[in-house]
Design goal:
This protein has ten helices and 17 strands. The chain has 353 residues and is α/β, with parallel strands linked by helices. The chain has three domains: 115 residues, 2-Layer Sandwich (Nucleotidyltransferase, domain 5); 62 residues, Dna Ligase, domain 1 (2-Layer Sandwich); 132 residues, ATPase, nucleotide binding domain (Nucleotidyltransferase, domain 5). A seven-stranded mixed sheet has the order 1-11-7-2-3-4-17. The longest helix is centred in the C-terminal third of the chain and has 28 residues.
Length: 353
Amino acid sequence: MLRLGSASKGRLGIDIGASAVKLVELRMARGAMRLCGHGVAALPRGAVSDGRIHDTDGVVEALQRVRRQAGSRAQCASVAVPAEAAIIKSLSFPAGLTEDELEAHLQLESDQHIPFPFSEVSFDFQPLGASADDPEQQVVLLVACRREAVEQRAQLLHRAGLKPVAVDVETFAVERSMARVMGRTGAPDDAGEPAALVDIGSELSSFQVLQHGRTLYRHEMTLGSRALLEDVLDHGGGTAPDVIPGNHGALPDDDHGRLLVPFVEDLAQQIDRALQLYHTAGQRREVNHLWLAGGASVLPGLVERLAEASGMQLALADPLHDVDRHPDVDAAALAGVAPGLLTACGLAMRGWT
């Protein structure tokens, strides 16, 4: 959303979530992306909630820890503000306006599009080409966010020894990752049919319907995985601070089913409700495929149980499945966390797709 500088060959995507900080490092090698490192570091409880950062010291410490875990020396990093913190609008302007003229118009008309003072705003825009309804008009995508949210995240990266090069919006980062996932030959929706994505978060989960990697509809679901993962860790010998992707332990089949069944039932009901709202919003295309992401998505049996409960075709959303890996990257460890790295991966990909 806000461009802060140029990036080096190595780019870090950093996702500051409610329960953990996640990092992905991508580099260009022989014209293709290469995964050089990844990591997940738990945050103190309450450090981040409702998209707001309350414990800056705790976040900085997690940033430093996840960087060490990934073995990364790259400094240029992109971070994101939550989708709920951003205003995203498609606007129409005369086709002949230049980018400088568009910026002047947006500043002049800011009170029509942004519900808070322009002096408190960071904004960006992108011309999307001629309007399908009127060739004399062009469509312009406007993205705005309170400046304090942008500056806070940039300052946190600085404190952790990183150089912020961009502050994006989570929605766009996820779209970038999902464009790769959905564009693979043989993917359930590679023919261009819309598909849903459920990203299971610690406190909340998001439901998006995407087509060609772009969001048609988005809905926040009031269901998170923290309680489930804590129960899993308790039965598997872990501890609550370790509630991070890839650290769920193994469960006896009886315990596994007992813990998963109520969560899957609740999740299936919320997905059904989200699909109803999607159609109520005027979307007519049917959605038959569901991608699942987030740390809890890799729990054994979750995909199969949810497919049965929802009646939909399910698959894990792994944006790094076919990315070349540095020899030091552990393939097994990556498989256990990859569906939770959608946002971090999309941020690291910024500027290359």
